[in-house]
Here is the input.
Amino acid sequence: MSARSSTLASLLALAACTPETAAPVDELAPAEAWGEATPAPAALRRLTAAQYAAALHDLFGDDVVVPAATGPDLPLAGLVAAGSSVASYAPRAVESLESAAFSVADQVVSDPARRARILACDPATPPDAACRTETLRRVGRRAWRRPLTPSQLGRLTAVSDQAAEALGDPWQGLAFGLAALLQSPNLLYRTEVGTPDGGLRRFDDHELASRLSFLLWNTGPDEVLLDAAEAGELRTREGRLAQAERLLDDPRARAGLRAIFEDAWGLGGLDDLRKDPTLFEHAHPELGPDAREETLRLVEHLVLDADTDIRTVLSTRQTFLNPRLAALYGLPAPDPEGWRLVDLPASSGRRGLLGQAAFLALNAHAVSSSATLRGKAIRVRLLCDEIPNPPVNVDTSIPEPSGTTRTLRDRVAEHLTNPTCAACHELTDPLGLGLEQFDGIGRWRTTDQGAVIDPSGDVDGTPFRDAAELATVLAEHPDVPRCMARTVVRYARGTLETAGDEPWLGVLEDRFAVHDHRVRPLLLELVASPLFTVAGEVP
Amino acid sequence: MSRSSSGLPTRRRFLRGLLAGSAVSVALPPLLSLSGRSDARAATDAFPRRFGLFFWGNGILPERWVPEQEGPGFALSDQLAPLADVAPHLALLTGFQVKVPNRVAHGSGPAGLLSGMPAVDLGDNRITFAGPSLDQVLADAIGRDTRYRSLEVAVQPGGQGRSYRGPNLPNPAESDPATLFERLFGPSFRAPGEDGVVDPRLALRRSVLDAVLQDAAELSPRLGSEDRVRLEQHLDGVRELEVRIARLAEDPPQLDACVRPDPPAAVPDVDGRPQMSEHARVMADLSVMALACDQTRVLSYWFSDPLNDVLFPGTTAGHHQLTHDEPGDQPQVHEIVLEGMQALAYLLGRLRDVPEGDATLLDHCAVLATTDVSYGRTHQLDEFPLIVAGSAGGRLRTGFHHRSASSDNAGRVPLTLLRALDVPAADWGVDDAWTDKGLGELEA
Here is the structure.
């Protein structure tokens, strides 16, 4: 995308979407509110598959085909962001990254329009050595998220010159230089490791720029952000906030926000969703992607368009539907076709995330629902409770439906009466049984095996009659916003919190409440805070 | 057979092909593993010894797995029946136990057997091995002379396998036949006797990787010790790729059985279900030809992953769910185990059908076939399923059933295989899984 069209797009987005309620900077916690803490150390972070693709599209344009090359993302404690701080690139990925680098470089140098986007001289003329070097210097600053040192640039130049001469083609010279840029650890890792400073590690200007853009855009900084970093602006709270507001107002904030919630709720699993189409009439290969799109569109709408209390995502009757999902939900197809924001009927049992196919199908089996998986997801993903691994060496089977035990509630009764099982299952199953009126892919039903489903239960003592009430009770649960704030911090820092982080996490949770649990000010508070600018010393 | 007089590809040709005679000087990164590579081979017959791992997920039904008879010429059990055709090439080992704490269902078993160490729990039903898996230990020892140090293949669509270079560094398997074909037999592959002009880009690609290594060397001092280890793991892969590119400039080994295969047909789902048997055959054909062409000497073939919930044709639920919830004697689980054994029989049969000198490719292999639990319903690690196939060039005995009367340490089997493949391993595993004793019954 050219700079001009990108600006135009952001102006349009501003006009269309920016709510009037954005928190001015002076409503954020003052610097002194944060006090002292002992933050967790930071680590080198591998780019996720999505970040790698986004970074290359930023450099060369959205029309470049970026092959999948990083290897699968590896969640730690359910979060890809945390896994990225312990993972590396396997040999298979190194091989794929090499072919991807040459594939992308060749797409760029073989296409006049793409050349023109990056070339430091007349794109109609084959680039001489000086032009190639200058081009690599410019692309390199974006790609590596900081200016290249003379020795770094010298290496790229040598590779490029060597290839140009050996192959007798200056364009191929440039391609080899780009291929070297793209395979460097300076691109493939976020090298935000800080500099020792009084027992802590303080992130430098470029590390702060990278942290900001990956948090809010899920990709590397643009030129403006790099310029701000190099002008020292990100060292001040005000400078960071000014850039964070700019990033949040940019259309790319949508990709950033989607990445946060995709990771927080484990929606990556929807890529591999497998449901038995002989049992589920509405199961089809697009179910997983459709379901994710529904959920992420709703999050985008609530956070960036409406700037409202994020707990609404649990209780709302609004959602986004395409014709396939409308059919699954038993509703008329939206008109015109495509994705539409709709109000579910008041009589509908669906409320928010827990009534969406993404949650219901992901946390279920290939042929049936699962009270345990759904309840566990509520506990772990929404309340940040810890649920131990299922025991081994125990027969965990549940009985087949029979004349007397027809519904899942009857069949899992053993989970709740046998003391060995109940310790964990009483945390999960009563919540999941509240969603039993949705089958294994999220279609509404009132009976199972011919028996009427009882969807009532309680959440930590607060009773609910059905899924809609369960959603309302959870939306008021004090652990929901607490968990969301923590998850955003885990995501932003790529580490799980330690006890030393608690003072700052407590402040952030309080501030989230002050801002009526709106995610935009939560992100701004985080960016302004020491959670964002320092980390613990590395062992 | 002849693979040049020394059995080695010629480095001379590789150098001659550089840059099409251009006067440009390209710094050649050192080829670590090209030096001294003849030593290992000189000690054996002309054919290299290979390792294969065959893995299926979710275990077996022990009562239908263990044959009644022991010793040579035993009658196969219900679940082993599909292996009848290759039975003389098998050693069936029963009554062994994977001796790590059984803390993560479906994770502790493979980690305990294949790395000798307890699994590291990553939460949300995920684990990492705490160290390299058996195939990777072997790849370090016998994988250095081939284009691919090791090859990881999955039959289950999207299957990842459980091959680990180290903690948090899995080697994901390839489950797409077309991608696997492209990697192995795409444009850069040359069959024996096919002449090829060495592409000058090969040397340039290596200088790109050299620049990458230098970038990393500048970055490394800024990092903490754990990050340095991670970066170093990545760089091992870069150095491996340098060697692999160098191999492409060499003449292919003159192996009679190596022919360029046809591209595989896609294996589409039917009724939303993967066609596992057909897919297994396609992946086995490509894997066997990769071994026959000496593109790799270390294969791991993951029929299905631990904890997989594959909807097998004709079943009423995903595999994992069936192992827990199917009532009675679990006829559907039994059928799925049979599908796995049929896939194993096919792979072994294909290995046996490749002649190598007076013997067969299977004779030059040591294949370990195993799974993640014994009885899936209760995640047991005793009565652990272990099959060894092939004789590793005469180092292993086959054609018998040996039963441990005392729940012996299953780790003795990997240790035996390491030694049979010339890895001078003193011991295997840690804590209760530790052993320094190979399995005498298996050693020829």
